[in-house]
Protein backbone atom coordinates (compact mmCIF):
# COMPACT_ATOMS: atom_id res chain seq x y z
CA UNK A 1 0.00 0.00 0.00
CA UNK A 2 2.83 2.40 0.86
CA UNK A 3 4.45 1.66 -2.53
CA UNK A 4 1.22 2.64 -4.27
CA UNK A 5 1.10 5.88 -2.30
CA UNK A 6 4.70 6.64 -3.17
CA UNK A 7 3.95 5.97 -6.82
CA UNK A 8 1.06 8.43 -6.71
CA UNK A 9 3.19 10.95 -4.86
CA UNK A 10 6.02 10.50 -7.38
CA UNK A 11 3.61 11.55 -10.10
CA UNK A 12 2.73 14.62 -8.05
CA UNK A 13 6.41 15.43 -7.61
CA UNK A 14 6.95 15.28 -11.35
CA UNK A 15 4.03 17.66 -11.84
CA UNK A 16 5.42 19.92 -9.15
CA UNK A 17 8.63 20.31 -11.11
CA UNK A 18 6.97 20.94 -14.47
CA UNK A 19 8.00 24.34 -15.68
CA UNK A 20 10.98 24.69 -13.35
CA UNK A 21 14.25 25.92 -14.81
CA UNK A 22 17.08 24.91 -12.51
CA UNK A 23 19.62 26.86 -14.59
CA UNK A 24 18.15 30.23 -13.61
CA UNK A 25 19.96 32.05 -10.82
CA UNK A 26 18.56 31.77 -7.30
CA UNK A 27 16.04 34.39 -6.22
CA UNK A 28 16.63 36.64 -3.22
CA UNK A 29 15.62 35.28 0.18
CA UNK A 30 11.85 35.05 0.66
CA UNK A 31 9.93 36.94 3.29
CA UNK A 32 8.12 35.32 6.19
CA UNK A 33 4.68 34.05 5.24
CA UNK A 34 1.44 35.25 6.76
CA UNK A 35 -0.12 32.52 8.90
CA UNK A 36 -3.69 31.82 7.77
CA UNK A 37 -6.41 29.48 8.98
CA UNK A 38 -7.84 28.70 5.57
CA UNK A 39 -5.37 26.79 3.41
CA UNK A 40 -7.11 26.17 0.12
CA UNK A 41 -6.25 25.29 -3.44
CA UNK A 42 -8.96 27.79 -4.43
CA UNK A 43 -6.98 30.70 -2.95
CA UNK A 44 -6.58 33.44 -5.60
CA UNK A 45 -2.76 33.38 -5.24
CA UNK A 46 -2.71 29.63 -5.86
CA UNK A 47 -5.10 29.82 -8.81
CA UNK A 48 -3.08 32.65 -10.36
CA UNK A 49 0.09 30.56 -10.13
CA UNK A 50 -1.77 27.68 -11.78
CA UNK A 51 -3.01 29.93 -14.59
CA UNK A 52 -6.66 29.81 -13.52
CA UNK A 53 -9.30 32.15 -12.13
CA UNK A 54 -12.25 31.12 -9.98
CA UNK A 55 -15.55 31.24 -11.85
CA UNK A 56 -17.80 34.06 -10.55
CA UNK A 57 -20.54 31.52 -9.78
CA UNK A 58 -18.23 29.81 -7.26
CA UNK A 59 -17.08 32.92 -5.40
CA UNK A 60 -18.39 33.30 -1.87
CA UNK A 61 -17.09 36.80 -1.17
CA UNK A 62 -14.15 39.10 -1.61
CA UNK A 63 -10.90 37.24 -1.89
CA UNK A 64 -8.35 37.92 0.83
CA UNK A 65 -4.77 38.49 -0.26
CA UNK A 66 -2.17 36.00 0.89
CA UNK A 67 1.37 36.92 1.85
CA UNK A 68 3.58 34.08 0.67
CA UNK A 69 6.90 33.21 2.20
CA UNK A 70 8.81 30.90 4.44
CA UNK A 71 7.28 29.53 7.65
CA UNK A 72 7.73 31.88 10.61
CA UNK A 73 10.01 30.92 13.47
CA UNK A 74 8.35 28.27 15.63
CA UNK A 75 5.84 27.14 12.96
CA UNK A 76 5.62 23.33 13.07
CA UNK A 77 4.15 21.82 9.92
CA UNK A 78 1.99 18.72 10.37
CA UNK A 79 0.79 18.20 6.78
CA UNK A 80 1.37 19.65 3.33
CA UNK A 81 -1.34 20.65 0.88
CA UNK A 82 -0.21 20.33 -2.72
CA UNK A 83 -2.29 22.22 -5.29
CA UNK A 84 -1.96 21.46 -8.98
CA UNK A 85 -3.98 21.72 -12.15
CA UNK A 86 -6.31 18.80 -12.54
CA UNK A 87 -8.19 17.52 -15.54
CA UNK A 88 -11.72 18.50 -16.38
CA UNK A 89 -14.95 17.78 -14.55
CA UNK A 90 -18.42 17.66 -16.03
CA UNK A 91 -21.80 18.57 -14.59
CA UNK A 92 -25.10 20.00 -15.78
CA UNK A 93 -23.47 23.41 -16.37
CA UNK A 94 -20.81 21.99 -18.70
CA UNK A 95 -17.12 21.11 -18.56
CA UNK A 96 -14.94 22.71 -15.87
CA UNK A 97 -11.20 23.12 -15.45
CA UNK A 98 -10.27 21.59 -12.10
CA UNK A 99 -7.62 21.93 -9.43
CA UNK A 100 -6.33 18.85 -7.63
CA UNK A 101 -5.89 19.29 -3.90
CA UNK A 102 -3.64 16.61 -2.35
CA UNK A 103 -3.07 16.41 1.40
CA UNK A 104 0.24 14.76 2.32
CA UNK A 105 1.61 13.72 5.68
CA UNK A 106 4.73 12.11 7.04
CA UNK A 107 8.17 13.50 7.87
CA UNK A 108 7.93 17.10 6.63
CA UNK A 109 11.37 18.12 7.90
CA UNK A 110 13.15 17.42 4.54
CA UNK A 111 10.47 19.42 2.71
CA UNK A 112 10.79 22.36 5.10
CA UNK A 113 14.59 22.24 4.88
CA UNK A 114 14.36 22.17 1.08
CA UNK A 115 12.26 25.32 0.83
CA UNK A 116 14.17 27.27 3.46
CA UNK A 117 17.50 26.65 1.72
CA UNK A 118 18.54 28.04 -1.64
CA UNK A 119 15.91 27.94 -4.32
CA UNK A 120 15.87 27.96 -8.09
CA UNK A 121 13.62 30.26 -10.07
CA UNK A 122 10.84 28.69 -12.08
CA UNK A 123 10.61 28.86 -15.82
CA UNK A 124 7.45 29.85 -17.65
CA UNK A 125 5.48 26.65 -16.99
CA UNK A 126 2.80 26.05 -14.39
CA UNK A 127 4.20 24.85 -11.07
CA UNK A 128 2.29 23.12 -8.27
CA UNK A 129 1.77 25.26 -5.18
CA UNK A 130 2.43 24.12 -1.62
CA UNK A 131 0.84 25.05 1.71
CA UNK A 132 2.32 23.87 5.02
CA UNK A 133 -0.37 23.27 7.66
CA UNK A 134 0.13 22.78 11.40
CA UNK A 135 -1.86 20.44 13.65
CA UNK A 136 -4.43 23.15 14.49
CA UNK A 137 -5.05 24.21 10.88
CA UNK A 138 -2.83 27.29 10.75
CA UNK A 139 -1.13 27.42 7.35
CA UNK A 140 1.48 29.23 5.30
CA UNK A 141 1.61 29.45 1.53
CA UNK A 142 5.16 28.83 0.40
CA UNK A 143 6.83 31.09 -2.18
CA UNK A 144 5.53 30.66 -5.71
CA UNK A 145 8.81 29.07 -6.80
CA UNK A 146 9.04 26.68 -3.82
CA UNK A 147 8.31 23.67 -6.06
CA UNK A 148 11.46 24.55 -8.00
CA UNK A 149 13.70 24.38 -4.94
CA UNK A 150 16.25 21.99 -6.36
CA UNK A 151 16.32 18.21 -6.18
CA UNK A 152 15.33 17.97 -2.50
CA UNK A 153 11.66 18.79 -2.96
CA UNK A 154 10.67 15.91 -5.28
CA UNK A 155 12.41 13.43 -2.99
CA UNK A 156 10.73 14.95 0.09
CA UNK A 157 7.30 14.79 -1.60
CA UNK A 158 7.85 11.15 -2.63
CA UNK A 159 8.42 10.19 0.99
CA UNK A 160 5.08 11.63 2.12
CA UNK A 161 1.86 9.64 2.24
CA UNK A 162 -1.18 10.78 0.27
CA UNK A 163 -3.98 11.18 2.84
CA UNK A 164 -6.63 12.77 0.65
CA UNK A 165 -7.01 13.88 -2.96
CA UNK A 166 -9.91 16.03 -4.17
CA UNK A 167 -10.77 17.64 -7.50
CA UNK A 168 -12.33 21.11 -7.26
CA UNK A 169 -14.14 22.75 -10.20
CA UNK A 170 -12.65 26.17 -10.88
CA UNK A 171 -13.43 27.65 -14.28
CA UNK A 172 -16.18 26.77 -16.72
CA UNK A 173 -14.34 25.72 -19.86
CA UNK A 174 -17.31 24.80 -22.02
CA UNK A 175 -20.83 25.67 -20.89
CA UNK A 176 -23.78 23.58 -21.93
CA UNK A 177 -25.86 25.41 -24.52
CA UNK A 178 -29.27 24.69 -25.98
CA UNK A 179 -27.58 23.51 -29.22
CA UNK A 180 -25.13 21.14 -27.52
CA UNK A 181 -26.39 18.16 -25.46
CA UNK A 182 -25.09 17.83 -21.90
CA UNK A 183 -21.96 15.65 -21.57
UniProtKB/TrEMBL annotation:
<feature type="signal peptide">
    <location>
        <begin position="1"/>
        <end position="25"/>
    </location>
</feature>
<protein>
    <recommendedName>
        <fullName>DUF3558 domain-containing protein</fullName>
    </recommendedName>
</protein>
<keyword id="KW-0732">Signal</keyword>
Amino acid sequence: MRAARRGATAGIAVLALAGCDQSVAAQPAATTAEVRTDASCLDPEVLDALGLELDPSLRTGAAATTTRGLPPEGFVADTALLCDRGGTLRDSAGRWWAVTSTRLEGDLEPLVRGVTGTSAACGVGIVAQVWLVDALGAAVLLPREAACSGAGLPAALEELDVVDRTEHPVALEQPVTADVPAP
